[in-house]
Amino acid sequence: MKTIIKLAILLLPILGLSQKFENSQYIYENEIEMYNEGNDCSVRAIAVAYNQTYYNSMQTTYTIGREKDRGMILSSFVKYLSRTIIDNKTISSMEHLTTPLSVKEISNISKYNNKNLFLVTKDHIFNYKDNVVYGNSNDHRIKDVILILEVKPFSL
């Protein structure tokens, strides 16, 4: 029996089953329903990265130009957050990937471990924070991350 357990523990990373995942749609389920929101990946991503309430994150996206129940333009999102401090946190680095990476690949690269990251595809944004994927139910399977933004405490 011990051999089977050890084998299962060794195989989990290979099979991609050890990756931790939190569905942010469930985390913010009550708020999404209360504010009748949809297409809100940017709202949830800000809430997770900056430890903000859903409401405050929603207001931030409206400031950037997002309309209610609509997605938003990625360049506006990145531009705003890269020059904004929220709860003493800001974007500290931006990495444009020449070859898209999967979430699984990102989770296996040590420089991304224990970080607070926005992961961006051509039409979606979600988080990889402290080695946990926060996003929609299938985000841990995404294979086309093209931009990684790191959030860190602001310092002069």
Give the overall form. Answer: globular
Q: Catalogue the unreliable spans.
A: 5-18
Number of strands: 6
Structural class: alpha+beta
DSSP helical segment count? 7
Order of helices and strands, N to C? Answer: HEHHHHHEHEEEE
Structure report:
With 156 residues, the chain is α+β, with helices and mostly antiparallel strands. The chain has one domain (21-153). It contains seven helices and six strands. It has helices spanning 2-15, 24-27, 29-34, 41-50, 54-64, 74-82, 103-107, and strands at residues 20-23, 89-101, 116-120, 125-129, 132-135, 145-153. A six-stranded mixed beta sheet has the order 1-5-4-3-6-2. β3 and β4 form a beta hairpin.
